[in-house]
Amino acid sequence: MGINILGTGCYVPEQTLTNDDFTRFVDTSDEWIRTRTGICERHMAGWEPVWYMGAHAAKQAIERAGIDPVDIGLIITTTVTSEFLTPSISSVIQRETGAVNAAAFDMNVGCSGFVYAVDTARRFLETDSSMKYALVIASEALSRFTDFTDRSTCVLFGDGAGAIVVERSDKLFSSHLTSDGTGAHFLCARNVRVAPEVAIETDFEDGFPDRGLHKLYQDGREVYKFATKALPAAFEAAAEKIGITKDDIDWFIPHQANVRIIETAAKKFELPMERFVITLDHFGNTSSSSIPLAFNEAVEKGMIQRGQKLAFIGFGSGLTSGCVIVEY
Ligand code: UT7
């Protein structure tokens, strides 16, 4: 069983930061950021909460899907940057959208979140025939958890939200999800410290770098090595399950972390970069929102057409990766 994507939506904050803006507070340059990452500009949440951005994207997706929100049976939001430890962002988005009959929960899978959530939604639709539509949202404000004194991470991230509405269908579908917890400490942000006094007395260390609470740490080189392998591997595993190859895919929509990671995948697949949707130049790395934002933009621009085969490929903290292959 596959899914039919009925509608897409997005929200990006009003405020933008160019590469040059960063030169005012860290030792960097437009040239370094462009050539090492492909990023030129990113949106930064100012007044906009994560739940607000997600609700806005969700409402747009619902409107474009042309459905009544009361018929939505499931809301899954992926985020690593919620304003709330509880309730879930999905519950808040339920309140905002009027999807009163939906089950609602969040997923935290770093930048792989959207792929995990789409796969999860499909499984719900398959096993619960009373469920008509599922709403999948990704909403992130990485800027709120970025250390703006650390030039190696602060220039990478941007904020925004994307959403899709799906229903069950007999269209082609495959997925493959991975996680390797031995790399968990390469990309992390600490929320609380467990009894710091006891930790000091007992000399306890959990193996995670401590850059302060709510500040993102990334070992860029380790994550880069992982990403360049994980992106093609996740696709190949998902494609193999349904006996298709890279040549059957019209559009690859990978997580938008670094254009060099995508170029490496294109080279490995021996495919032109034109088959990959790229939006990181103007959105930066928006974590789990990056795939639905890129997808939404490509749909809005008319690049992606009905009937085409798409591969959403995520990779990120965990270290996790995943690929979902769908027919649009
Ligand atoms: O979204 C979740 C998944 N995340 C990813 O996929 C990110 C994967 N990693 C990357 O994309 C890259 O590793 C980065 C973009 C984070 C870094 O690029 P890099 O080419 O791996 O640079 P590097 O960390 O090896 O650093 C090279 C040099 C260093 O200077 P030295 O030690 O050679 O003197 C850094 O201090 O570049 C320096 N550097 C900078 N220079 C100017 C690091 N950040 C900056 C900066 N401006 N913003």
Estimate nothing, just give the exact number of structural domains.
Answer: 2
Gyration radius, in Å: 19 Å
For the sheet with most strands, the description reads: 5 strands, mixed
Q: Note the run of SSEs as H and E.
A: EEHHEHEHEHEHEEEHEHEHHHEE
Bound molecules: oxa(dethia)-CoA
The strands making up the biggest β-sheet line up spatially as 1-7-6-4-5
Estimate the helix proportion, in percent. 25-40%
CATH architecture designation of the largest domain:
3-Layer(aba) Sandwich
CATH H-level superfamily title of the largest domain: Thiolase/Chalcone synthase
Quote the average pLDDT: 96
Short account of what is shown:
The protein is an alpha/beta fold. It contains eleven helices and 13 strands. Helix 4 (89-97) links the parallel strand 4 (72-78) and strand 5.
Which properties best describe this structure?
4-stranded mixed sheet, Peroxisomal Thiolase, Chain A, domain 1, 11 helices, single chain, binds oxa(dethia)-CoA, 328 residues, globular, alpha/beta
Q: Can you walk me through this structure?
A:
Helices cover 34% and strands 25% of the residues. The protein has 328 residues and is α/β, with parallel strands linked by helices. The protein folds into 2 domains: 2-170, Peroxisomal Thiolase, Chain A, domain 1 (3-Layer(aba) Sandwich), CATH 3.40.47; 174-327, Peroxisomal Thiolase, Chain A, domain 1. The protein is globular. The model has no long low-confidence stretch (mean pLDDT 96).
Secondary-structure blueprint of this entry?
Elements (H helix, E strand, L loop, with lengths): L1 E10 L3 E4 H4 L7 H8 L3 E4 L5 H16 L6 E7 L10 H9 L5 E5 L5 H15 L5 E9 L9 H4 L4 E11 L3 E7 L7 E3 L6 H7 L13 E3 L1 H22 L9 E4 L4 H11 L10 H4 L6 H11 L8 E8 L3 E8 L1
Parallel strand pairs: 4-5, 4-6, 11-12
Antiparallel strand pairs: 1-7, 2-3, 6-7, 8-13, 9-10, 12-13
The structure holds oxa(dethia)-CoA.
